Every structure is written in structure tokens, then in C-alpha cells.
Amino acid sequence: MFPHTQVTERLLRWFEEHGRDLPWRKEYKPYEVWVSEIMLQQTQMDRAVEYFTRWMVRFPDVESVAQASEDEILKYWEGLGYYSRARNLHATAQRIVTKGNGRFPNTVTELEGLPGVGPYTARAVASLAFKEPVPAIDANVERVVARLRCLDQPVKHKESQRAIQESARDMVAVLKPGQAREFNQALMEFGALVCSRNPRCEECPLESMCLSRKAGLEHERPIKGKPKEVVRITMATGVLVHHNRLFIQKRLPGDVWAGLWEFPGGVIEDGESQEQALVREFQEETEMDVVPTWRIGTVRYSYTKYRVTMHGFYCALANGREPEPVLSAASRYEWIEFQDMDKWAFPAGHAKLRTIMQEQGPGVETGE
Known about the structure:
Layout: H1 4-18, H2 30-40, H3 45-58, H4 62-67, H5 70-77, H6 84-98, H7 108-112, H8 119-130, H9 139-149, H10 158-173, H11 180-193, H12 211-214, E1 231-242, E2 245-251, E3 261-262, E4 265-267, H13 274-286, E5 290-303, E6 306-317, E7 330-337, H14 348-360
Parallel strand pairs: 1-6
Antiparallel strand pairs: 1-2, 1-4, 2-3, 2-7, 5-6
Helix pairs in contact: 1-10, 1-11, 2-3, 2-8, 8-11, 9-10, 9-11
């Protein structure tokens, strides 16, 4: 019989002593808990704290999010990646204000009905903000339970998932009323700080109950699943300069990085040079003919399964005249001043290219 009561008691004591001082733990306001949980999806804690703090200065409540434009929401999210989180957060805020009269949903069922809120986030918000006695299972929790119980299947295997969910429910069931808030955080925090990918068993208050430790398998648990597929692609991107202004375009709704701004470009095809790919992509996306003039540099970034190498160039209009762009891969375009680039939200690769441009300074595109 797994000692659920002993585990919960020890983890609660551990959390009381070692829990991190995080800004959303000051008052556990539903809005702040919700924003923090959305930010923490696919994001490291330190980075999430940085963005959360800046976000709360501009958007102190759900109403301020609902009233903001999508462009501003995406700009404050820039650099966190997975931008669907920001768009869903924006849509949720608008729904809460218009349909819920500003009342924040307080049950798992209601929370799961919100855009971008899945089972984990709904339970995390319900337990942290409203002290609902429900388990919140993230990757840290899966790792802790898989080690404690020495599960012999990968954590995403249906048998492992069943065992993890049963243990999480059983641990919550033995808590005193109101303890779910502290316990769920304790379990997740413990997985992040102690029972991490490289476990610190010498510091573990659960060592005597850990079946993996007893079997000498703490470094082999949890069992890893199949490695994720990695696709490597090489791209060319052009920063068109005309009358000291830069051309940018806004990505289409439903596309990757929808609503963000970019410099035109795309994948280099077999047999193409970087410059040839740039000229072709510009013609395909805008029907404008351009000539590369100056290499900006090369940036590398990742998203989902892709590992991207992107070569950036300044370019000019081939005939010197400014035609009306005909967009095929964007919903809008703008001609912007060099010094205004920071006002627009770019995806990771283009933001890195922007940084190189800013470090080089204006005038480099003409070789000055």
C-alpha cells in the first residue's frame, strides 16, 4: 500500500520551508494565478516571473486585458513563444468581461470551457485560487510519482497515466480542507527543485518511501518515451529598405505565429542560393522584385519540432519604385522607421534578427 498520507505530510512541511517566493503567491488572486499558469506552460520559472511582473504593470486586471488590442497583447508576450497562449488569454479575458460580467470562473468545469485552458490548467487554477480539492498533474508531478512508484512504462503510457492520476487523487483525498492549494504547489515545486531530471536524492524527504531509490533506479525513472522528431530547415529573410523605411508584414490568422509581424522570406529550395531564395520568396509573398544589398547575419531558433537556421539580408526594390504590395502570406503590411522596430511584436527568429540590426545601427543596409 502506497503511503499517501506520509507523502503529503512530508511534502507540505518541505514546501513550508522551501517554497519559492513568487509574485502570484502573495494573495492568490484568480486573475494572477490564471496568468501565471498560462505563462508557465512551456516556459521556465525565472522567465515566467520576469514576464508576469512586467505584464501586471500594464494589465493589472482581466478588464485591462480584454480592452487591449491583439497587437499590444502579442507585444507584451513577445519572447515567450507559443503565441496561441496569448491569443487564448486575450479571448478568455474578453469572454469573462462580456459574458461573465467580470466574474472569474471558479470551478474546474467552468475553467475547462475557457479558450486555451486544459485539464491541468483548470485544476491548477481551481486549487490554487479557490482551494478546490482537486489534483493538478504537470510534468513535474508525473516525474515524482513515476519515481516514487518505480513505474516501468513511460509516463505517457496509459498504464502509467492511470497510476499517476490514482496516486494524485489519493494524495489529495487525505488532505485537510483547504490544503490542496499548498499541496499541489508542493508536489510541483518538489519535482522542479529536488526530484528533477537529475534527482537530488540526498536532500529528499521522501527517500525512504521511494521505490526507485530502493531499487537503485532513480536515474532510470521515469522511463523515457520515443525521442521527438527533429526537422532542420534553412531559410532566407529579407529586410526591404525604401526611403529609409523598413517593410514588415503581419502573419495570417490560423498560421504559425498568427498576428505577429515579420520580414518576408522562406525556406531555401534545393539548388538555390540564399539570395535567390530571398528574391523568389519576396516575389511570391508580395509580388515585389527586390535585390539583396547587405548581409545582416544568421540566427538560429527552434519551435515545436523544427530547428531553423535563418539568413538575413537587407534588400532594395529592383527598379527603385515603390509598388503596391500584393500579399499572399500576410494580412497587412507597414512601412516603419528603423527606430520603431521595438513597437512591433516579432516571432523569435525575426526578433533575433532585429536585435542584430539594432546592434549594427541604421545605415548598415547601404554599406555606410
